[in-house]
Amino acid sequence: MRQQAMRQRNGEGRAAGVGARGPRPWRRLLPPGLAAPVLAVPLLAGLAAAPALAPAAQAAPLGVYGANDASLVREFEDWLGCKVEHLMIFTGQRTWDEIGKPQWFIQQFHSYDLPALWSVAMIPKNSSLREAASGRYNRYYTDAARELARTKPFPDGTIRVRLGWEMNGDWFPWAAEGKEADFVATFRHIVDSFRAVSDKFRFEWNINYGQTMDPAKAYPGDDYVDIIGMDFYWKKQYLPSDPVRAFEAIRDDRYGLRYIENFARQRNKPTAYSEWGVQGDDAGPFIQRFQEWVSRHNVLYTNYWNHDADYAGKISGNIWPRTGAAFRQAFCAPGASARTVPPTPGRASR
Asked: Considering the domain boundaries, does residue 333 fall inside one?
């Protein structure tokens, strides 16, 4: 029986500012006790030449976050009228054992048969980024890699992993400001540990919109990063209430959408918008402009935050009919990113 979804708080809050969306606990279904023992997978003997990531399509594939709950993803698809192309899943963050044993989280989506962007914590709360930078915890990263190497790859054969997300904020234990060298060293240790297991892994380096830190100071280097990512949310407490002006503010910020696209282009890397969300029934113009932005750039994927944990952005259902219609038009109309399919028998159609 599925247990009640609960929060785990990874920080007391985040810095106030245009990018803030309030305290950053993250919501997932708690496993009934610690995950099962790690299933051994032989290490690959050496690394083959890694194939490059496939170029992004004209309209980037749409993924969704649904509180690590497959049933909520299916509800989103029924409302959308399309199949999402991939999932966005957080693995355990509370302890080192949870980081090293992601089996429970993998199992929740075993029957879904979709690739996932795996958000893997660098360190748990109250751990030392400096100690991780020394290589002390590499065995946990290797254990996690052995399990994730068994998961379904993307069509290009890669398994995508997001590390140290939103590191330019102050709400996660891997916050990089003032500890940039330790962040970079830890990121590299994780990448090296994963690559020792499989050459399928590709790694996203991710920042959060609206912070003042220069994120380039914590860039691990082109040899360790495959995808340049950003998270952003429209929250009217910190951004203009007009949807067009709000999008333009995010686009034109010093470390906004233009910045991340230029940063990636200079390094010949694709981009990704791993978390994004809107609120209210007037967000249609914002959604339209974002979809147009994505179609004009080398964006590998986007993930909509369809939940109310941390940020009340759940768009499925009829809470915001005009915004919902605009979202479906942008991401489910012919030529958009998601694959239109008839409703699955036994599932409610929208």
From this structure: yes
Amino acid at 294: V
**275 included as an active-site residue:** yes
- DSSP secondary structure string, 253-275? STTSHHHHHHHHHHTT--EEEEE
Total domains present in the chain: 1
Q: What is the model's pTM?
A: 0.82
**Which range marks the domain in which residue 266 is found?**
58-340
Q: Hey, how many other C-beta atoms are within 10 angstroms of the C-beta on 15?
A: 17
> Bridge-partner residues for 276, per DSSP?
232, 304
- pLDDT tens for the chain, 350 residues long, are 322 222 222 322 333 333 334 334 333 334 433 333 332 333 233 333 344 554 444 468 999 998 889 999 999 999 999 999 999 999 999 999 999 999 999 999 988 889 999 999 999 999 999 999 999 999 999 999 999 999 999 999 999 999 999 999 999 999 999 999 999 999 999 999 999 999 999 999 999 999 999 999 999 999 999 999 999 999 999 999 999 999 999 999 999 999 999 999 999 999 999 999 999 999 999 999 999 999 999 999 999 999 998 899 999 988 999 999 999 999 987 655 555 443 333 333 32
Q: Catalytic: 204?
A: no
Computed from CA positions of residues 209, 210, 216, 217, in that sequence, does the dihedral angle turn out positive or negative?
Answer: negative
Q: Given 98, 166, 177, 261, which residue is catalytic?
A: 166
281 occurs within a structural domain:
yes
Q: Is residue 1 part of a domain?
A: no
CATH for 180? 3.20.20.80
